[in-house]
Amino acid sequence: MESTIADTNKSHTDTFTDELLQLVSFTIGSEEYGVDILKVQEINRMVEITQVPQTQEYVEGVINLRGRVIPIVDLRKRFNLEVKEHDKNTRIIVVDINGNVMGMVVDSVSEVLRIPANTIVAAPEIAAGTNSDYIKGVAKLDDRMLIILDLSKVINTEEISGVTG
Predict the structure, then answer these.
(1) Strands 145-149 and 31-36, sheet pairing
(2) What is the CATH number of the domain that holds 62?
(3) Is the separation of the CB atoms in 50 and 62 below 8 Å?
(4) What is the pLDDT of residues 119-155, one digit of tens each?
(5) 164 lies in a domain?
(6) Number of domains in the chain
(7) How far is the C-alpha of 56 from the C-alpha of 122, rounded, in Å?
């Protein structure tokens, strides 16, 4: 069985099938988000971030990850949410976006989910705005909604490629 979802804000059509998707779910504020597990390399506790001058506001700086310097993006800042202090639940999700490895600071990591692709629907028009381009879709789970992010649109690798030299 296959269902087609047309996104009214775009000229293309996304097709979701009955296949199972594996997503890493995490929270930012009161919302729960998900990203494709295949994009996630690892999840780390918060470490000291070295600030880099003259970068985008949402770029926290860089960390040394086993000898490799990677840029760190704060998703709260990227989504224009209220900044909060990091705590014991704060995590850095290390992802690979089109061959560029970088970290995303999130409030907490929840779990790895396996969900049928046909439970994902296009983001509602009410979400239309600057951040709606980041949203691949919304998964309807039993007791909650999960916002599925398109990492290639959340983090513009060209904007931060100069951070690590």
Answers:
(1) parallel
(2) 2.40.50.180
(3) yes
(4) 888 876 555 444 567 888 999 888 889 999 999 888 8
(5) no
(6) 1
(7) 29
